[in-house]
User: Fold this.
Amino acid sequence: MLVDAIHEACLKILHEEGHATLTTQRIADVAGINIASLYQYFPNKEAVLASIYEQEVSQSAEQTRRRFTELAQLSQDSLEKTLAAIIDIETTQLSKLYQMSPAFYLAYKESFDIHQRLDDLTQSLANPSWSEWFPQFLKSHSQRLRDGDLETISFIARASLAGNLQQAIKEQPERLNDETFKQELLTLLLSYLLKPAN
Assistant:
């Protein structure tokens, strides 16, 4: 299919040549088509990138949905392992999207909200949204959590994770693949969530 060929050509250019060389003409050349054929589907290179990102976000949401059952089971057994799995899912998704085209991702990241896509997908299958599921998960470990309003604690924990990941993307995106960074995020969440040690 022509759209697939255009997608593949765009990704090949990004991986082998970099974002600076990405033009509609270059995409058409690598895809082996004339520029008029490309313009039948996409008005500019941003539209090609948006289409690729849309496809990737949908695939990521589907992969995460498949892991939801595994995560739900894990959440009953271990607070620490569940949080570590969430951090791993989040960093992997963000890193993959960012690495495709850093400049494009930073410019348009608000358009590619994986959590919203995942929420839409999981709710369509009668599962709770992320914001509903997380406090339920914490409640199942309430005997280990510090005192406080669970909804507020849940919100702050989710926002802290999201904020740290977005700051990493802006300042030091390589940290998304750094196991030390992931461990520190886990330590941060556990330090906030758990009762102080006596």
User: Anything to note?
Assistant: Residues 1-43 form a domain with the Arc Repressor Mutant, subunit A fold (CATH 1.10.10.60). The longest helix spans residues 45-77. The mean pLDDT is 84. The two ends are 63 Å apart (CA to CA).
